[in-house]
Design goal:
single chain; seven-stranded mixed β-sheet; GMP Synthetase, Chain A, domain 3; Rossmann fold; alpha/beta; eight-stranded mixed β-sheet; 19 helices
């Protein structure tokens, strides 16, 4: 390993105002270094961008064969110190968080400096310690996109606890499953959330999660009074966030953590139905986030970064919280939607706050495009905006062009980025000001990412310049998840054993003659709805909870606004088959079943009732054929269907779809 001087006391901002790279050739040179001399490359990045309590002696350990991956072994650091303390001590009055309420008229805006953020985090860390939370414990957070949620996350990081943020759109049943899996003893929530003028009863959902079904390990529930609504508080268990915070003061020391200690859990859908609790570790995740700030977004000291993704997803974790705070800039938080109270909301926020970077899902851009050009044009020019990036799903070329021409007026960099909950940070992405973009492409691999296209049948690499197949990665990188909580075997089976020697993304892709990558979508039983990955097996399991359902098949199909939507085919038990005039009622009951079991965002857009599902003679439901028929493929063009036990089931499905 190359000798590098260890920097343990970094400047507050990791940019001096000059771009990280001067051109595309710089990217290619540095990218090649990351592959040919990885120890020297990663050592320099780690010491340039992170503050260490103790230097590391080994850069890389393990690999894909056993999934025993580790980076920067025996180094020590703390995520909260890197995100808060080093900026608070040098620039205490610099803005860390600009928080926007759901309602721009009646809601209250918040602004928090790095100094104030440190004080709040220290108080919250003391509260958690008083409640018995220790290093390695998992704290569940079920909150709206508010400042207190970030404070809670950073307080966990400060004391070495692992935060498990659950998206506030999940149902009580889904929340309970995640609490049980994580074995949390403390949950942090709010009385209510607000979204597009509607109230979300968060505390009531938590109460339901803690009292229905299998008992949890929860001893304490911290409740932040967000709306001030009157809610029941359970003696002994429930505690007021504000009252507990008021009892604390002073500096709270930060735990010096091993680089491979857990930082957070995020649950993501899997093709087996049960969500996977993916564990990300301190050092590797922080480095991936910091490098994206420096290279992908070219962050400068006075920038303001608005990540429109919810903190309950990886986008909100990496780019709404950790990356901007690591860079010492302001992160913009927003509780509402892009069209509330109207479709000018993003643009008025950008102008008023001086936002330089907007990071949003293509679904949001499609929604805004549908509203017409008037809303954005009424707020132009968006003088502060330099970069508009997309994440969660491929951006259709026509949406890319509208974003560039109408929103950006050809003066804003449009970045179509690709990453996953599992990858932690970007793995394919253009770099702001560096990479020539192609509408619809995620462009080139990020540093250290050796991307390949595999033949789906043989598992062999397709080495020609132009290739179409399975997107995979050939070597580990620091920010990737390390395991599935409680089941490393499941981690191996899902990601590393499908194609031995490679990380399996679950996505199909095409590589063009310039080495650019184009994501075509999922190749497994996971549907990408508005950037949210939903397991079709999980939806099917929810439908089967209804006593009248005999069989269910859920598949993804194209949707103009959401990118993909879930369509379900359901056969009912004989006595329950409804009269024609009651089918709408049955469909609505089944949709509500999914909403209760998982959450509103996972509900099928369409449910077709059939007397039989197309199955092989061994009983396997042919979801692939259902998907093809949804896309308009006629039965005659479905290919070999000789293994279908009941050929009439195909015509039945076709008739209900197109009848």
């Amino acid at each position: 390993m190359s000798t590098v001087t260890v920097v343990t006391d970094l400047p507050s901002e990791f940019s001096d105002g000059t771009p990280a790279l001067s051109g595309l050739n710089d990217y290619y040179t540095l990218y090649q270094q990351s592959l040919t001399n990885p120890d020297a490359f990663w050592t320099k990045q780690a010491y340039d961008l992170l503050q260490w309590d103790r230097q590391f002696s080994t850069v890389r350990h393990g690999g894909f064969e056993y999934g025993d991956i580790a980076w920067f072994a025996d180094g020590k650091l703390n995520a909260c110190v890197n995100c808060v303390d080093r900026h608070a001590f040098q620039n205490p009055d610099k803005i860390a968080i600009d928080a926007e309420p759901d309602d721009p008229v009646t809601g209250q805006r918040q602004q928090l400096s790095y100094g104030a953020l440190l004080r709040e985090v220290c108080k919250a860390a003391q509260v958690l310690r008083q409640l018995g939370v220790r290093k390695g414990d998992v704290v569940t957070i079920y909150m709206p996109v508010v400042v207190e949620a970030v404070v809670a996350m950073l307080a966990c990081a400060r004391i070495g606890a692992i935060h498990s943020v659950v998206f506030a759109g999940f149902s009580a049943a889904a929340l309970r499953g995640r609490i049980l899996d994580a074995q949390s003893t403390v949950i942090i929530t709010a009385d209510e959330g607000r979204r597009a003028g509607k109230i979300v009863p968060l505390k009531a959902i938590v109460d339901d999660a803690l009292t229905s079904g299998e008992s949890t390990h929860i001893k304490y529930c911290l409740v932040f009074a967000h709306t001030g609504a009157k809610i029941p508080m359970h003696d002994g268990r429930d505690k007021s966030w504000s009252e507990e915070m008021a009892k604390r003061s002073g500096y709270c020391s930060a735990e010096s953590l091993d680089v491979e200690d857990g930082l957070f859990l995020l649950y993501t859908s899997g093709s087996t139905g049960k969500p996977k609790g993916l564990l990300h570790t301190v050092g590797g995740f922080l480095l991936g986030a910091a490098m994206n700030g420096k290279y992908t977004f070219d962050l400068q000291p006075q920038d303001k970064f608005f990540c429109a993704g919810d903190i309950g997803w990886i986008t909100g974790h990496t780019y709404g919280v950790y990356m901007p705070l690591l860079a010492g800039i302001a992160t913009v938080m927003y509780e509402g939607t892009p069209v509330y109270p109207d479709a000018s909301r993003y643009w008025t926020m950008i102008n008023r706050l001086g936002v330089t970077h907007l990071y949003a899902a293509p679904t949001s851009l499609r929604l805004l495009k549908r509203q017409g050009d008037t809303f954005v044009k009424s707020q132009q020019p968006l003088n502060s905006l330099r970069v508009l990036a997309c994440v969660g799903e491929p951006v259709a070329p026509e949406v890319w062009r509208w974003t560039n021409n109408v929103i950006g007026q050809n003066n804003v960099q449009i970045l179509d980025t690709y990453f996953q909950t599992e990858t932690g940070s970007h793995v394919l992405t253009p770099l702001a000001g560096i990479t020539p973009s192609k509408p619809g492409s995620s462009c080139l691999p990020f540093f250290g990412i050796e991307a390949v296209i595999l033949d789906p049948e043989s598992g062999k690499e397709i080495t020609s310049k132009r290739a179409t197949g399975i997107l995979a990665f050939k070597r580990p990188w620091p920010s990737m998840a390390r395991t599935v909580l409680g089941s490393h075997q499941r981690f191996m089976e899902t990601y590393l054993d499908i194609y031995k020697g490679y990380y399996f993304t679950g996505d199909g892709a095409t590589r063009d003659e310039d080495g650019y990558y184009w994501i075509s979508g999922r190749v497994d039983d996971v549907v990408n709805v508005a950037g949210h990955r939903i397991s079709t097996a999980e939806v099917e399991a929810a439908l089967l909870q209804n006593a009248i359902v005999a069989e269910a098949a859920a598949v993804g199909s194209s949707h103009e606004l959401l990118g993909q939507a879930i369509t379900a085919f359901v056969s009912l038990k004989e006595p329950a088959i409804p009269e024609i005039d009651k089918t709408a009622q049955v469909r609505q009951e089944l949709i509500q079943e999914v909403r209760r079991s998982i959450g509103p965002f996972s509900a099928p857009k369409r449910i077709y009732l059939v007397s039989d599902l197309p199955k092989t003679r061994s009983g396997k439901i042919m979801r692939r054929l259902l998907r093809k028929m949804l896309e308009g493929e006629v039965i005659e063009n479905l290919g070999d269907v000789s293994t279908i036990s009941n050929p009439g089931s195909l015509k039945m499905a076709w008739d209900v779809i197109h009848g």
